[in-house]
């Protein structure tokens, strides 16, 4: 224990030492200072408050990275977010607790294409909340469908797909009924009336993602001009790249993106959904837009076998993850900074900048999670790792 000046706050000051911090796109050998759930500027502490740490913690040469933000996760550990059950909250709570060990400190529970009755029952039960010892924070729901293409429906059930009719945004409201907790909507931009729907969702602060679509590049560019900022699992469930019309994939290098607007794209980096070479092509074309997502289903964390995805049954045969040759910094930012920027919360989460929420991970050199912290509090750690 060291003496500390408490003129500003009585809360204890924690100093995490013997670590490499991801800051300004680089791993830097610095200490991390935390007070009252926020990352502290040590210079202000020393010079303005004449203060010092109350508690020093030896991180044993860990990498410290911002907590991961998963903007597309359909469930896990036997829980399927797209099932109309009476106690949605307990399922979300179970997943939010279990994903702490994977380094996820906040997430968007994702619903796949479902009948309106499911949205009407499930969405009122999803509430945005901060993370903590109880589990990762909930940033809002990601609604993937039902306004998507039949040709590119993937695992989404065709008989629940919808189109925008004369009501456009009113059709969407009738389907979902509740938008208070909604953060992202994935839709196919080639659908008629989609432009006005994109504009209205964007106006309400909801992120629009393009996916499960046969859109050509000009349709995708028009959607971006109207406010779309994300691509749902790039390459999957969209037209393959073609040099005459690259489709949605072409947004990565389009010169028609409005000034000061960035298009982000989700990637399932497991070596199966996307070949590592395709992942490298996307990353080299547009590195600042890469957002790693799990797209995990109820079977995540369970033994191989049959598991649900909304109204469908999916066969799980082992689990795989894969990172295709890029720097450690790039991989970590794709799971933290970029999703935070996509959701417009980078002033609070996704970096280790001063005054941001102290949501962070201690990782070993192989990027295995040693410990997870939310608001400066340890919420999970390996049995063998103590600091």
From TrEMBL:
One of its GO terms (biological process) is N-acetylglucosamine catabolic process. Coiled coil: none annotated. Its EC number is 3.5.1.25. Binds 1 divalent metal cation per subunit. Residues 63-379 form the Amidohydrolase-related domain. The keyword Metal-binding applies. GO terms for molecular function: metal ion binding; N-acetylglucosamine-6-phosphate deacetylase activity. It holds the Pfam family Amidohydro_1. Keywords: Carbohydrate metabolism, Hydrolase, Metal-binding. It catalyses: N-acetyl-D-glucosamine 6-phosphate + H2O = D-glucosamine 6-phosphate + acetate. It comes from the Eukaryota. InterPro entries: Amidohydro-rel, GlcNAc_6-P_deAcase, Metal-dep_hydrolase_composite, Metal_Hydrolase. Pathway: Amino-sugar metabolism; N-acetylneuraminate degradation. Its cofactor is a divalent metal cation. The active site is at 295 (proton donor/acceptor). Zn(2+) binds at residues 144, 212, 233. Belongs to the metallo-dependent hydrolases superfamily. NagA family. This is N-acetylglucosamine-6-phosphate deacetylase. It comes from Gopherus evgoodei (Goodes thornscrub tortoise).
